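Let's practice the habit of predicting before peeking. Look at the sequence and jot down your guess about where helices and strands might fall. Then scroll down.
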Amino acid sequence: MALDSRQWKLTLGILGLLIVIGSVLSARYLVQSLAKEEQDKVEQWIIASNSILEMSDEEAAICDLTLPQAILSNNRTIPMIIVGDRGEIISGKNFGVKRDEDSTYLARKLQELQEEGATPIQYQGNRLYFSESTLLKRLRYFPYIQLALLGAFIMLAYFAFSAVRKSEQNRVWVGMAKETAHQLGTPISAIMAWVDHLKEEYTGDEEIDMIANEMGRDVDRLQLVADRFNKIGSTPELGPEPVADVVEEVYNYMSKRAPRKMAFSLDLGNCVRTCHIAINRHLFQWVLENLVRNALDAMDGQGTLVLSAYVAGDLACIEVKDSGKGIPANKHKTVFRPGYTTKKRGWGLGLSLAKRIIEEYHGGKIFVKESTVGNGSTFAVEVPVAN
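Done guessing? Here is the structure:
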């Protein structure tokens, strides 16, 4: 059975967790083994040292001291401090050429070892303290470094794959939008030609003239839609536009298409009349129309809809508030993802394209300001005020 996207993510997450746990456990086992090996080396060093010191001159002359001398000379990595029975430091070894003779440094290291609970080993009536080698200390931090690197790699891979996926989605949207604009071009041109033919053929007929004029307006609207689709994927030209005019045009157009049982109103703040924003008028109005259209669909032909605009600091805020079905709290961000829709018809690209237009082209924000199931929704668009 094929796995869906969520199952794949869960499976890969579990595999990654198992790899991390296995890596940490293996590193921990290696550290423990190396620590035990260093302790054995210290004990062997003590045995070798005692065997040489306790040997008489006659025994030393006839015995082979190669092995104990090799054990003594090979211990160059494990730091050791020999302490007398009264607590005085007798000598230090493997801390460094200068530090082995530095009594202050050795006293500080001895205090650290005692505070850590290090257990001394009896050595010729004295006590020998030893600490981990530099290699072992570094190896103890290795799992954490490994986890940090693995986490950084996962984050980098996630952002890389997200960027690739987003780039692919953008190419699909751009290609689909431009192809739609191209396909609309031919029938629009044909309808324009038929409208001109009607006007010429039936000159003086008021009814035909009225129908032709209405058809002409609809053709202009189709031309505007095609132009909007054609602009997707291209860097649009932005210019200062009055907020009030932009919002009023959307209201005038959409209010004529709203059901009669619906109360659709416009609310413009005082400061909006003198406020301008740097936008592409066609694309920006497309976003507002999309929000209003979604609000109309959410109310099933009756309810209250308010299109409002106001200025808050250096932002122009436009809101679409409806009394429709509302959106669950866990879906406030999901509604802007490509493919998400609650309608029986549609591709679920309207809000995702609106988000792209507002955030990538206009440097603004679009979000669900407020919504509860059964009590309607408020969508908000915020863009910087033009200087």
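How did you do? The longest strand covers residues 303-312.
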